[in-house]
Amino acid sequence: MTYHPDHNVEIMTDCHDICLQTVSHCLDKGGDHAQTEHIILMLDCAEICQSAANFMLRNSELHARVCTICAEVCDRCAKDCERLAAGDDMMQQCAQICRGCAETCREMSRQTGRPRHASAA
């Protein structure tokens, strides 16, 4: 995977957005979809993705550490969404986007120093 901070921020933002949209979907569906643990996990995922994107945008030296946690939370969220995804396109989409974000964050967690944005180069 190539190191593209601006594109990676977009991936994290997309994950943030789909998790928030999926929370509403799950609350509307009720039942297992609306279990407290599931909702909290999706909100955690949205929040850590936004935080990771913010660390990247401000060129923080700590971005790699935040991305390590982001990858773990995204993996957990994807797994939990997959558990509820049978016949549910929204849950499948959330799981897929979370998996992609986890992969991106794992790659970013291997980077050292400050992220370099195309606009700052």
Question: Mind explaining what this structure looks like?
Answer:
The chain contains four helices and no strands. The longest helix is centred in the first third of the chain and has 25 residues. Helix 1 packs antiparallel against helix 4 and helix 3 runs antiparallel to helix 4. By secondary structure, it is mainly α. The protein has one domain: Substrate Binding Domain Of Dnak, Chain:A, Domain 2 (Up-down Bundle).
A few lines on this structure:
With 121 residues, the protein is mostly helical.
Throw out a few tags for this protein:
121 residues; mainly alpha; Substrate Binding Domain Of Dnak, Chain:A, Domain 2; elongated
Q: Strands, helices and their partners?
A:
Elements: H1 5-29, H2 36-57, H3 63-83, H4 89-109
Helix pairs in contact: 1-2, 1-4, 2-3, 3-4
Number of helices: 4
Number of strands: 0
Span between N and C termini? 20 Å
CATH topology: Substrate Binding Domain Of Dnak, Chain:A, Domain 2
Poorly predicted spans: none
Main sheet specs: none
For the record, the CATH architecture stands as Up-down Bundle
Structural class: mainly alpha
Along the chain, the helix and strand elements come as: HHHH
Overall form: elongated
What's the alpha carbon Rg, rounded to whole Å?
Answer: 14 Å
Mean pLDDT: 91
- Helix content percent band: over 70%
Total domain modules: 1
**CATH hierarchy class name:** Mainly Alpha
Measured by DSSP, the beta-strand proportion falls in under 5%
